[in-house]
Amino acid sequence: MESHCFACGSDDLVEDYAAGDLVCRGCGMVLIEHLIDDSPEWNNYMEDDRDREDQNRVGSALDERTGATSLETYIAAPPTAKKSKGDIAKPFHLSQTAQVLRRKEGFTQLRDYCDTLQVNTTVAEYAISLYAKLDGLEDFALRRQSNKNRLYAAILYISCRDCGNTRSYKELENMTGVDKFKIGKMVTQITQANVFEQRGPTPRVKSEDFLARFCSSLNLPTKTRIIASPIVEKATKMGLVEGKAPHAIAAGVIYIVAAFTNAKRSVEEVSQVTSVTANVVKEVAKALNKSKKDLFADVPEIKVA
Hints:
With about 300 residues, the protein is mainly alpha-helical. Helices cover about 45% and strands about 5% of the residues.
């Protein structure tokens, strides 16, 4: 590349990207013609491309988890194709394997469900990786799964649990329309497949995992959540809520603690937010109220305006 004009000696040179020329601003001499632009390709095809701050390379990176071996390609219809007079040849897409199409569909659906659940990207990526690994297992027979939503729900349950964004079976049932017991069976099948190498036992879902989210959704004060956590722990140790699901225990504790902190919420409000039926919330609250003095013995009476 020239650094000075051979006609006038000026170093004020500029590239004309439209014409592909290197021009001297001092005398107007065209020093080089038909330059090859070796800068990266961008997806903004306008004259002021290079002044834009949001330049992006064309296309997205290839996700190896889809099983695709190359970028997608569109080619023109073969010359042997029968065409009537006046028809214009239409491009068609190179055929992709059934595995790639199946994984892309699964990835898209999992991302949509994660948006609905309002979980972070970590959960979505974990779920996608889990789906891809299951699809690679011959014994799991993912391609023969008749109810895909059941598989998606089970994967999301495991992903949320392992990433610390726990969701209950009932919440996933409401979202996917799949019975919670069927989701549980699928979770067991996935766990037995040993897709990920777990260090230690499988994480257990605890009532404490739901407290912060439920309190936030009910717009309860911070003190309510702080008090609710030790109450859940005490109730569990005392055996007051045996046989109840973790999210149901959390719902019942929040109901009585909210009243204790002068931030009472109705049973219907708690039921709607927690996906626990009103009757179950009442049952848990009734069991807790029998030992209310012991549960709140070490908790100072806090009133929230």
